[in-house]
Amino acid sequence: MPIGYLVRRVMQFFIVLWGAATLNFFLPRLAPGNPVRDRLLSQASQGGLLQSGVEEMVRAYNAEFGLDKPLWVQYGRYLYHVFQLDFGFSIANYPAKVLPMITAALPWTIGLLVVSSCWAFVIGTLLGALAAWPRAPRFFRYLIGPAMALSAIPYYMLSIVLVYLFAVTWPIFPLSRGYSISRLPGFNLPFILDVLRHAILPGFSIVLAALGFWALGMRGMMVTTRGEDYVTFAEAKGLRDRRIFFSYGLRNAILPQMTAFAISLGTVVSGSVIVEAIFAYPGIGTLLLRAISASDYFLIYGIVFMIVLSIALATLAIDLLYPFLDPRISYRKA
Amino acid sequence: MANTSVNFPTPTLASPHARDRTAPQALLAYCRRNPQLVIGAAMLLGLVLVGVLGPFFVDPKQAQPLSAPTAQPPSRQYPLGTDDYGRNLLAVMVTGLPLTLRIGFLAGALGLLVGTFLGFVSGYLGGPVDAVIRTLVDTSLTVPGLLILITIAASIKGFISVNIMALLIASLAWRQPSRTVRAQVLTLRDRGYVQVARRSGLSTPEIIVKELLPNLLPFLAASFVGAVSYAILASIGLEALGLGPQNDPTLGMTVYWAISFSAPLRGLWWWWLPPIVAVVILILGLLLLTMGLDEIANPRLRRAA
Known about the structure:
The complex is a heterodimer of chains A (334) and B (305).
Chain A: H1 3-30, H2 35-47, H3 54-65, H4 71-82, H5 98-132, H6 139-152, H7 155-169, H8 189-226, H9 229-237, H10 241-253, H11 255-279, H12 284-293, H13 297-325
Helix pairs in contact in A: 1-4, 1-13, 2-3, 5-6, 5-8, 5-11, 6-8, 7-8, 7-11, 8-10, 8-11, 9-10, 11-12, 11-13, 12-13
Chain B: H1 23-33, H2 35-57, H3 89-125, H4 127-141, H5 145-155, H6 162-173, H7 175-189, H8 192-199, H9 204-240, H10 251-260, H11 269-297
Helix pairs in contact in B: 2-3, 2-11, 3-4, 3-6, 3-7, 3-9, 4-7, 5-6, 6-9, 7-9, 8-9, 9-10, 9-11, 10-11
């Protein structure tokens, strides 16, 4: 892999992070209203206190958070902190810092997403490949239409319907949350089974909605691959159909799907954020929804930055691994 | 070069008697060959009609809270039931659907306008301008748009109206069009007729407006529908998180309120199901329309299926 490409790609990674951090820094300062004062006022009114003293407290907090310094000093300090993943304190739950709240939620999201994305990828890719394979049952061809229609529907819409059908009308699966309230989290079989049972509905809505995307892409690639000379040659040699399908067709058609995986990652993540919120799944999405309704800006920006960071890392990894997957790729000047 | 095949492609391949046909017949024959276009357009037209004709059947004022008894199932008086605020949900649908369409249309149009401009500048001029625009687009496309929108919308939450929502989404909707338009301009830039126009002394804006733009019209129409779908999906996603116009019953906000009052758990299906069905019809209609328009914009697809 040429050094030039590597440098450009890594630089793009840092530009994305810098852009996200900069946006997070300047947006709240351009927006009307002062989160510190708003928060204090709302707490004062909840406590039935008079407003006297609030202005002094605002000033004290501003000094505490460094909000009284010149803008560029704040910006520099902000970048310095963000690149250490220090997003400051949560406004809504003051003594709590943002980062531990995010890291507590992150494993839930990653677990749900990785498992359901893998299922969607495998099922969708197989479905698409079979739909384009001439000797596969016709049945698979009829599945493409519905899969496509499902993929056009936002994940979270599907999940509302699923909750209503399989948790309210026929209560087969739990309504919400990541595990039963009565159970103590721990690394034992009943707890793990409980977690799995809670993950089925949210996971299923992600799989169902993401399936069509993979099926369509794969079908397109498979159509071109099955016309290649080496496939005809393999047929002429009299190889078993199964072998031709997997080793000659699938193996060669699957590569662009990997690129698509990198591209779709963002959509998958943002779609599942809302799915989590609907299921009150204890991941990033629910945390984000709660942060939004409490106007907890530092938490919102922290979550957004962490998601941007993970997606940027994942796409970087896929881009750098790609030449190992497909030896035909070389990163000369495009 | 003159694009006669935009509206009524002469169907010489499809039928030997094509020349005997009148224009409406040709149009009909074309529609039969391109059912996606017709079905998609019909679905969207149906949704527009709900907004246009709806006010004759139900008073839009009933979309305000406290205009009906709360949480009633569908009945003769309230065909789509009412919600916890005492809103007549039929009136909510009739006022909310056009608002969602307006957000999508405005944001899509703005996004396409800016994107086309940048795409033309970047593709036709090339050089450092192209490099800057391309880096900006490529870099920002790696970040999920919804996240950027969440950051912005969360900062101005109380001030979002339908028009601001459209502006907000348009601020990201230009990226994809600018990339695809640039690619198209690159393929057209060095065609013979463009070179002839350049040699005969036409200025760059003249070449863009007179030579390139007419040839890209079908393509731009398809991109426009794509941009509208993006805008509608983005707006509904934001609204489902509560980051939409707080006082307007758009489809996404209706779903948001239904979720925040746990309507799915309480069995109030008439609250959340109609907006979801409307969204699904909308998205599928736009998808079919894009596919139909693609067929016009890219004739090579015609024989493939």
